[in-house]
């Protein structure tokens, strides 16, 4: 068991790729699409790439990389109205279709076992699972009285480190109350099955009630 209590923790929240859609000229110049807005949006992604490199370089130069668990993730799919793309997935930010909720992420750093490097984790992982993961790795009970109760979180480290072949997460409830304060649409994911009810943001609020079997596992 790794105990993070003896290691420093750092949370780095980048503003990109969020509105306003703008980036320094030297990044925009890397792209030459007909749609200028796409040049700017892709430049914003390049800014994220460079800032991520700056952080990892600093960790390595300071000798901290070998004792680091580096987690990169994001909160939602790209907003297609500003030239972002979630292809080949359907949907946009604020939608419960896969393009709105399936996001990229990766784990790196010296604490990740060599056997796990380069592998693709296809099982479900939910953002709240990081809470139980970090607590457990720090030697803290995620269910103690000082945390949120009741928690909806699973310890992912056995899965990410290769001790287990499957993720403990099997279900996810998606609720975009920010775009839907009346709570008129919702989604339940259970394994490869996904049930969607109500209008979807970014889809013209088309009324849907459908059950999907997800066969596209990227």
* Uncertain segments: none
Instruction: Record the strand order, biggest sheet.
Output: 3-4-5-6
Give the radius of gyration.
19 Å
How much β-strand is present in the residues? 5-15%
Task: Please work out how many helical segments DSSP would assign.
Answer: 5
Major sheet characteristics: 4 strands, antiparallel
Order of helices and strands: HHEHEHHEEEE
Cα distance spanning the termini: 30 Å
Class by helix and strand content? alpha+beta
**Strands, count:** 6
What is the molecular shape? Answer: globular
Average pLDDT level: 86
Proportion in helices: 10-25%
Please tell me about this protein's structure.
This protein is α+β, with helices and mostly antiparallel strands and 218 residues long. It has five helices and six strands; from the N terminus they run H-H-E-H-E-H-H-E-E-E-E. It has helices spanning 25-28, 36-61, 98-101, 129-137, 157-160; strands spanning 70-73, 105-108, 171-174, 186-190, 193-197, 209-213. The protein has a four-stranded antiparallel beta sheet, with no helix packed on it. A two-stranded antiparallel ribbon has the order 1-2. It is globular. It starts with 24 loop residues before the first helix and ends in a 5-residue tail after the last strand. The mean pLDDT is 86.
Tell me the layout of helices and strands.
Elements: H1 25-28, H2 36-61, E1 70-73, H3 98-101, E2 105-108, H4 129-137, H5 157-160, E3 171-174, E4 186-190, E5 193-197, E6 209-213
Antiparallel strand pairs: 1-2, 3-4, 4-5, 5-6
Short description:
With 218 residues, the chain is of the alpha+beta class.
